[in-house]
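The protein record reproduced below.
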Amino acid sequence: MKKLCIAVTDEVRRDSRTTIRWNGSEFADVELQAQSRNLSTVEYIRRAVLHRRADLKIETTMILEIREAVAAIKALHAAYLANGLEPPEDLLGPVIDNAIVAILSLGRY
């Protein structure tokens, strides 16, 4: 029969404690970063300070990339207007609509 609990060695045991003071927006940002990586706030801070990986959840990464694509399309649209050209609404509109649908569908998983 397997043991349910494994003894923690002295080199793994965490016995040092520290306190960090945050203002409200800093702490909210740290919590958001931790949540987007599916980590506790403490584990996210530990990984950040020790330069360990703290990858984003795949859904978050996909949403961020889709948002960047939409921002690029909006910038292209603005560039058309800034140069006195008529933007191809019939081409750009459906792309933005599809990106919005993709973001919303990711929220279901």
